[in-house]
Amino acid sequence: MSADLLHDDVALMLRAGEHRYTTGRRQVVAALHAAANPVTIPQILEVETSLAQSSVYRNLAILEEVGVVARIVTHDDHARYELAEKLTDDHHHHLICTTCGAVSDFELPPEVERTLDSAFTASAAAANFQIEGHRLDLIGSCANCL
Amino acid sequence: MSADLLHDDVALMLRAGEHRYTTGRRQVVAALHAAANPVTIPQILEVETSLAQSSVYRNLAILEEVGVVARIVTHDDHARYELAEKLTDDHHHHLICTTCGAVSDFELPPEVERTLDSAFTASAAAANFQIEGHRLDLIGSCANCL
DNA sequence: ATTTATGCAAATCGTTTGCAAACCT
DNA sequence: AGGTTTGCAAACGATTTGCATAAAT
Questions:
Q1: What's B132's domain CATH number?
Q2: pLDDT at res. B1
Q3: Angle at B86 between CA A139 and CA B39, to 5 degrees
Q4: In this predicted structure, what is the pLDDT of residue A1?
Q5: Protein-contacted positions of strand D (CB under 7 Å)
Q6: Which of A106, A112, A140, B74 could form a disulfide with B119, with the two C-beta atoms 3.0–4.6 Å apart?
């Protein structure tokens, strides 16, 4: 997706939540868009050195609230953030390295995703659980750490 | 599995790692065994009031290290712990409630698990990633919070 | 007897928050 | 002007750690 369309979408989503699309928020979104993989807040601060740490924390919380970013919690020290799938049209899962903490993306074949979705729907119905989303991660060692 | 066999297995796994199976560790394992769902450390301390918080943190870390327990990280304040699947012979996944933080278990049909495993193996090979395990959780609202 | 585990209190560190100044509309 | 957002520094809270004592082998 082009950067302009992305920013337009983000602006709409923020406005729907009564928030403004400020320069700082734009920089955060740009950093996430530029990153190949989910990134930590220290990594964002390294790239966008003009941002205050507390503002990045606050803005990522707001961006998560309005559905622009997804937060990924691992056993690693820092949480990681990426643009929401809705914005990138890219359904994927994560490879989480237990050695270095890196998180990278991978995809499953569409027919596997369909199988999964039906199974999820059935399981959730049986437990009277209302699905908002799912997370499917592989835990192990990445190519760099092998 | 009977409690005795469980404790025997745990004792072996701890000894393999040069650790002792003390009373405190036994109490932690018993609490996990008694719990229907993955529990937080405050929940363990409520049940086993004689345990010191720091020892429970330390012992769960050791039990995780030797493969007796699995730690589940969610967006919730506290991590949750459960007995490792290897010990309970029970492969399952989690329903994570975004409202109250509760985590409960569910299972997928065996044929879905098989499909998933093949897909994982293929994806990991393509990324040169060595799988140690996976996590597959449904995020949403539990029956109590609907 | 020697090593490992415990309990307490203090330290750590990612994240959150209060508040006054700066910004947007 | 009237609200929101920012940056700084201080607060918070889950988890970790130092150290002297107790328990296990």
A1: 3.30.1490.190
A2: 65
A3: 75
A4: 64
A5: 4-10, 13-18, 23-25
A6: A112
